[in-house]
Amino acid sequence: MPRGARLDTPGTLHHVMVRGIEGAPIVADDHDREQFVYLLGRLSTATGTKIYAWALMTNHAHILLKSGPAGISGFMRKLLTGYAVRYNLRHKRHGYLFQNRYKSIVCQEDSYFQKLVGYIHLNPLRAGLVSSLEELEGYPWAGHAVVMNRIRNDWQDRDYVLSYFGKQEGWARRSYKKFLEEQTMIGSQPELVGGGLIRSAGGWSEVKSLRKRGEPQLGDERILGDGDFVKEVLDEAEEIRKKPLCAEEMKLRAEAELESSCQKHGVSRELLLSGSRKPGISALRKEMAIKLVREFGLSQAGVARMLGLSGSGVAEILRNVYATE
After folding, report:
1. 275-315 pLDDT, tens per residue?
2. From residue 246, how far is each of 68, 74, 143 by CA, in Å?
3. What contacts 110, CB < 8 A, 6 or more positions away?
4. Is pLDDT of 207 > 50?
5. CB neighbours (10 Å) of residue 267?
6. Element spanning 173, H or E
7. Is the sign of the CA dihedral 77, 145, 45, 240 positive or negative?
8. Residue 238 above 80 pLDDT?
9. Could you say which DSSP state residue 20 is in?
10. Are 137 and 146 in contact, with CB atoms under 8 Å apart?
11. By CB atoms within 10 Å of each CB, which of 55, 131, 144, 149 scores lowest?
């Protein structure tokens, strides 16, 4: 069954999962890990995206986030594209690094926030990347060490996480740690990596029980939450669908920015699209390619069409920029 459109309302809690293409690794060493975490932090700050929990594994990553004013799509595009360009350049490879479509599940916060934080932060322990909770506290490639105040990441909202476990810092940390200890005794919890009625209700037997009691629930594979929450999310998404799409708004703004830059440099759009290699034209294309991808979140193909470049030309510009940063 084809997947539905993303639910991308700003301010929504998402459990995001990204995987290497065909299960291949997305990191080869600590330098790659540092780059991924650096980009995650930089972009979360730049876009107003709240990061609560995360774990970078060998061939996949989990992130619990609340989307910023522009939604989740632009943030994830910049994160995955920016990292993939850096990775490919460093390892002298070409092609896709991630599966074409990351997975994001909209989550009911009151019911699932604590469980999701615990599930995500325990991933390195369950995978054998660390051998104990004590070792996990100093592990730099997951958010648990930040919550425990062993590592500092200003972009990770540890205060919000701890607020679910207590009002005072020390008590909240101890309560959080005890919660994780209890979670280590639980199985894989597959309901936390997907949505739908069966997962939200706690299994097929509970769904049948609800039906027998005459309490039908609404479910959606993109949402982890009860029937009322599912309806609320879908209703809100429908309202947004009736309005101009965020991506279309960003494209209009990008067009206006491009027009303004052309006027400022005394260059017509026709000349820009002509493929002219005059120094001033080439410099303007390079400047706008970087801005349209980074600040407006447009795809490389879309930017190529706007600037009279090939897709590989845009990719080369970005590779050169990332290589010098």
Report:
1. 777 778 888 888 888 888 877 777 888 888 888 888 888 88
2. 12, 10, 30
3. none
4. no
5. 17
6. helix 169-183
7. positive
8. no
9. B
10. no
11. 131
Share of the chain residues as helix, strand and coil, in percent rounded to the nearest 5: 55, 10, 35
Confidence of residue 14 (pLDDT cuts 50, 70, 90): very high
- Token readout for 102 is 């990351």
Question: What domains does the chain contain, in order, with CATH numbers?
Answer: 13-190 (3.30.70.1290), 195-242 (no CATH), 246-324 (1.10.1750)
User: Residues 29, 184, 103, 144: is their CA dihedral positive or negative?
Assistant: negative
Do the beta carbons of residue 248 and residue 302 sit within 8 Å?
A: no
* 325 SS3 class: coil
Distance between CA 53 and CA 15 in Å, rounded? 9
What values do phi and psi take at 50, rounded to 5? -90, 125
Nearest one of 4, 220, 214 to 101, comparing CA atoms: 4
pLDDT, residue 37, reads: 98
Q: Are 113 and 107 in contact (CB under 8 A)?
A: yes
Identity of the residue numbered 309:
L
Q: Are 145 and 156 in contact (CB under 8 A)?
A: no
Q: Does position 127 have pLDDT exceeding 90, yes or no?
A: yes
pLDDT tens-digit series, residues 42-70 = 999 999 999 999 999 999 999 999 998 88
